[in-house]
Amino acid sequence: MTISTFEDARAAVAAGLPVEAAARELVGAMSAEERLWCLDGDAPTWAGIAFLGRGGYHQAPFAAARVDRVGLPGLAFADGPRGCVVGNATCFPVPMARGATWDPDLEERVGDAIGRELRAAGANLTGAVCVNLLRHPAWGRAQETYGEDPHHVGEMGAALTRGLQRHVMACVKHFACNSMENARFSVDIEVDEVALHEVFLAAFRRIVHEGVAAVMSAYNSVNGAWCGQNRALLTGVLRQEWGFDGFVISDWILGLREAAASLDAGLDIEMPYRMVRAQHLPAALERGEVSWSAVDDSVAHVIATLLRFDEVLSRPAPGPEVLGAPEHRSLAREVAARSVVLLRNEPVEGQPVLPLASEGLRLAVLGRLAGTVNLGDGGSSDVWDLDCHTVLDGLRAAMVGGEVLHDDGSDPARAATLAAGADAALVVVGYTYLDEGEYIGQTDPSLSALFPPGDDPELVERYHASLEARRPTIEPERLGDRPGGFATGGDRSSLRLHPSDVALIRAAAQANPRTVVAIQAGSAVIASEWIDEVPAVLQAWYGGCRAGPGLADVLLGTVNPSARLPFSVPVDEADLPPFERDATRFRYDRWHGWWHLDRQGTRPAFPFGFGLSYTTFALTDVEVVMEPGVLVVSGQVRNTGGRDGAEVVQVYATLPDPDAPARLAGFTRVEVPAGSAAHFEVRVPTNRLAIRDPVRHGWRPAAGRHHLAVGRHARDPGAWHVEVDL
């Protein structure tokens, strides 16, 4: 059978021809110009940037590799870490909040919902899966990932990938070692092989093995080579060691520096415009700096992936009514409630402050964020959701038999007066997109040389015609005071609350002993200077379109909090490893988060995996059984309190090597009725305990005596301890 169109390739695959062979044959039927067309985005640079500045990121997907003559559908990319960014879609809580649920099944449901909305918006590829580790809480984009631990992050990212890929192709990002924001275009990360593979690549490896369609390279450099043209990463690790069979795209606009080097390294598509490669690749091919076989390899990667996902992508797309569908908003509320971490709940007059009894309650709600739609970052993950409910909205709807009073907290004395006359006070504090987020600011002026002098007029005309067919997207009123384009964002300048927030907390606490603090932020907030002055504290994140109702569900006891911290909260900044947000060179090692604190012998304010409930739990009858290739950890979770609830059982492994960090080896969330017990089982494949061998450049199987701690967080004094020999 001759393959000269994408439809021919489909038929050949259906008849039994391997996907890769069909893709190669179609590449052979394409002209040189058509093959080169597939190596970058389809849009002209300057017209594309102008559209981006008018909110274009939210108006239409980014197209690439579409070749009409052979019927190649190409790519239609839209972002989606907290919801489809094209159209007026559902905004879910940020990934860090979802990481706090420690529930891959719930995250898979979120992925399914986001995937449906992406297809409805015209996308077939999404950059929703961000699994860069939270190395330090100052990182501006911390909210877009799931936490500080590679196993936990990998499992949550794999779950999102499974859900998304029922509807679209997923792209995992940013490969690799991207966890500094302001310096992302200039910093070189130095990292040894062991730290690179055991810590910073582990989640990517997990998601590649899950079957993710695409990988996005990072802006930064690793060990002296820009990630968009880093052959050691893109070919040596990704393709040769891991066997990745999808395609690799660059990060947006400044994702590569040299056309030939990026292609030779294994980057398939420069996104999203016809920019560096369109200017320089044809001449580089003529000079022999890179081969046409590399071009064919990249085009084949794209076509083979489209064929592999053809069954999914050929299904009819949902209609526009799926954007913001009621069932998705209901899920957003469930996730918002399930993500709230109860950090402190001390008794006042003999009873814990939370949950609040809404009947007849007079509640003072303080702080400007209580009445603000606070979705988080204003960059590429922003979602133009038109139906967002604040904390005040949620409480007023839920407290039918009570009274909700509000003060924006701009005058702490006035706010304290309101608190003094209430039965309880809730102070909502934290950050916004002005404090942390994707960095859209000044870069190295020399990067301007990467841009073309102008656009092809014919391409501009086609591009504008394609935009005319898009569905209209309404810009939310809440964006009215923002400048055009993205918010500036960037890394945090402080890990503590603003002084005005601290003053408000203290004023409320002095006026009302039943004061609750809810923190909205993307990662850890140091609270040591004020936390002992209030009885109750919750980490409430950027909670999405139903942040208010979700928080109200927890405050009023409709939902028993079950979230656990996906990172450690230190007592002081000095307890953390260094962070330089303007660095040009920085070294990463195996020690950050809970490993760094343990190594230093430093007690955290709140340990990794910590979270309280309105009930109490105990682990009993824990045992470990060795099956071929798997350690089966099982036991009972007893609910020793008076409310139904859920516990997260966590398994930590200490390796025989005294210089190696311990590892989170597995976890499971268990629902337990009040006064009852439930069985739990955590299966730990022994290859999860393998160590990287920098001499052989591979993995050494786990061997020797391993110590397992089975508990409720990384510092659980009540953990069960078991020794196993492998």
Specify the CATH class of the largest domain: Alpha Beta
Q: What structural class do the secondary elements suggest?
A: alpha/beta
Return the domain count: 4
Radius of gyration: 26 Å
How does this structure look, described?
The protein is of the alpha/beta class and 726 residues long. The chain has 21 helices and 29 strands. The chain has a six-stranded mixed beta sheet with strand order 2-3-4-5-7-10. A six-stranded mixed beta sheet has the order 12-19-18-17-15-16, sandwiched between helices. Strands 9-8-6-20 form a four-stranded mixed beta sheet. Helix 17 runs parallel beside helix 19. The N and C termini lie far apart (53 Å).
Question: How would you summarize this macromolecular structure in one to three sentences?
Answer:
With 726 residues, this protein is an alpha/beta fold. The chain is 29% helix and 20% strand. 57% of the residues are buried.
